[in-house]
Write a structure and sequence with these properties.
By secondary structure, this protein is α/β, with parallel strands linked by helices. The chain has helices at about 5-10, 60-70, 90-100, 110-120, 130-135, and strands at about 35-40, 45-55, 75-85, 100-105, 125-130. Helix 1 (about 5-10) packs across helix 2 (about 60-70). It starts with a helix and ends with a helix.
């Protein structure tokens, strides 16, 4: 799946996003999105603050914010200190964004640090403890 597909649809092609109605025995009802994205500028970089859970169904707002930030600034800091869950959709978005701009991560939580370390992406991205440190590197 491309970055544009994720950003435009927020889910895999053909996935049901109705969120209502009856579900089958193996399907859970869709949980309301519990993620938020807030962009701002600091230290000469565009900062995008991500909080909540990020998976295939909730990644679209973050993808749109990162794409807009990458188009506006050569350096983008993603503050992940409020991310409580991240899966391969989140990881894929980080890699795709890194390919288009100087992406830096700030304040990784345990779930984010774990996925970065398990996949080796922490050796590719600039990961710092604070937004200030990430913007300065």
């Amino acid at each position: 799946m491309s970055w544009n597909e994720v950003a435009m649809t927020g889910h895999a092609v053909g996935a049901d996003r109705s969120g209502g109605g009856a579900t089958g025995p193996l399907e859970a009802p869709r949980v309301p999105d519990r993620s938020a994205v807030t962009p701002y500028e600091a230290h000469g970089a565009r900062v995008v603050v991500a909080s909540g859970d990020y998976d295939m169904q909730t990644i679209a707002p973050l993808a749109a914010a990162l794409r807009a930030a990458a188009e506006e600034h050569p350096s983008v800091v993603l503050d992940v200190s409020g991310v409580t869950f991240a899966d391969s959709a989140f990881l894929n978005l980080l890699i795709l964004t890194h390919r288009t701009t100087d992406l830096r991560l700030a304040g990784p939580t345990a779930p984010v640090r774990r996925i970065l370390e398990l996949t080796g992406v922490d050796t590719v991205l600039k990961v710092r403890e604070t937004v200030e440190d990430a913007a300065a590197c």
